[in-house]
Amino acid sequence: QVHLVESGGGLVQAGGSLRLSCAASRSIFNINTMGWYRQVPGKQRELVASFTSGGSIYYADSVKGRFTISKDNAKDTVYLQMNSLRPEDTAVYYCNANNYVNYWGQGTQVTVSS
Hints:
Blueprint: E1 4-7, E2 10-13, E3 18-24, E4 33-39, E5 46-52, E6 57-59, E7 67-72, E8 77-82, E9 91-98, E10 102-104, E11 108-113
Parallel strand pairs: 2-11
Antiparallel strand pairs: 1-3, 3-8, 4-5, 4-9, 5-6, 7-8, 9-10, 9-11
């Protein structure tokens, strides 16, 4: 089992940056996949970025070149650096760990004003 706690959300102007953090309750070194999703009211949760234990990294087309996912195994923490933020990036961002079972954090709100 993995308990995930996100932090780092907030209000930022368009063009600004935020860094989200996801602290895990156990080692993330061999978790199959970890990633960040986002959701706006009335829409499905969408995958933003993820990485596998094998080193594969995925980015949604809408965030390529602007967002960077990374991890610190020593701190059992996953990050999402978000640059050049746009109003359409406004959403609740969720950390996800998939190790044959899906685990979710509670979410952190990101609001980008125009």
